[in-house]
Amino acid sequence: MDAGDHTAREYFHHSSAKRVNTDLVLLEALRTQYPHLDVIVAPLARCNLLMYAAAGFATAEPIEASHGHHAYDPPVKWVAYVPPQRRLDSQPGAFSERVLFGKYMYKWKDVEFLMYFVNGRDGTAAYPDVTQHYILTTEPQKAYQLIKEASLWTEELHDEVWVFDGGFWDKSRELYESVQKSHWSNVILDEDMKKALIADVEYFFDSRDTYTDLKVPWKRGIIYYGPPGNGKTISIKAMMNMLYKRGKEDNKQSVPTLYVRSLSSWGGPERALSDIFKKARAEAPCYLVFEDLDSIVNDNVRSYFLNEVDGLRANDGILMVGSTNHLDRLDPGIAKRPSRFDRKYYFPDPDWEQRRQYAVFWQGKLKGNKAIEFPDELCPKIANRTDGFSFAYMQEAFVAALLVIAGRRNDGDGEGGDKAQMEDGGDDDLEKLVLWRELKKQIDLLREELGKRRSNDGNIIGFNL
């Protein structure tokens, strides 16, 4: 009588009792069941062979019982329904499977392997979750080559950004998608400053040989500072987007971004900084981002940070960028010493021309809205009235005004759009525009708030841009 898969039976027996070392149990079972095959064990943590196959580089066909069903037949898996991440998402959720024990015929480059995929631990973090691939083959050297290529693929970014948070590095598709919407053409800055920002970063990554010839370390630090809401974050994202395309659209070496959200870690901030710079050195050349640098690198972690920046380990190929709304809160040893952060770029409140450009930006966004009239003559008027505003305050004025207009249109009170046509572009005609009338109200309200915040704090507290 057929008793099912021998190795699966041993896995079931082992899993139903105390477990010490799943590898030893399964290796014994596999060598007994397949005495003519070599067994190679590849941990999932660095080599995800099923994902590698799903990406199209190999095939992995599940092997299930061809006749009859036995208690010990593979696979063993969990099935769960994962709802949409946000209630606002229009897409339905999806079913997700987690294989705990599976048997596959794995084909790669015309070579076939028999592979078991096994979760060897139960419990939570205190009892580690170890999942292994058990590859059976008569050609072990080709299995080693498969493991090498799949491991390299597993470590690479695939439309993702490395993010450090909670003490661990993880790949973020969400941040990547946000970055793809950020382009230098949408960043309103002084043109000379924008060119300098781009040239500074491009020159660094293109100049390894120059640094070597000059016998100076190939590393650099940049600080973006200034009142909130004036383009620091979008400039970082536009730079990330530009660097991501590097290597895809030309022959230059690609530059990944490593984004640090916090130093919160199970091992404390000193362990976090060690892990951050260890990863940066491994990924170099790379763009290492510390947003809100003054809140991340405080007095408690200053010495650990400086040790990583100035210590004995080489930081070749690492370009650090930190942003802060409060340069004065940074330790002078970080903010004022060139060998740590070599250049500082100030992001001031926008001047008249930049405010006019921002109004033009909104004019383009509203171009398809037939209910809102937004003539060219309105852009300089908005720039005149928003003197001293950050881009974030200007954005809030537009958003608040448009919400009021939309609310009135939904209520049917006749004030929800512009029906009057411009005649000669004079001020009297502009006053007929619902958008301009509501914008002026919102700008006046924000200016009152701005005055209060300046008088209370001595600084502008803006909205996030």
Automatic annotation (TrEMBL):
InterPro entries: AAA_ATPase_domain (IPR050168), ATPase_AAA_core (IPR003959), P-loop_NTPase (IPR027417). One of its GO terms (molecular function) is ATP hydrolysis activity. Residues 223-348 form the ATPase AAA-type core domain. Pfam families: AAA (PF00004). The keyword Hydrolase applies. GO terms for biological process: ribosome biogenesis. GO terms for cellular component: nucleus. Keywords: Hydrolase. It comes from the Eukaryota. PANTHER family: AAA-FAMILY ATPASE, ATP-DEPENDENT ZN PROTEASE. This is P-loop containing nucleoside triphosphate hydrolase protein. It comes from Sporormia fimetaria CBS 119925.
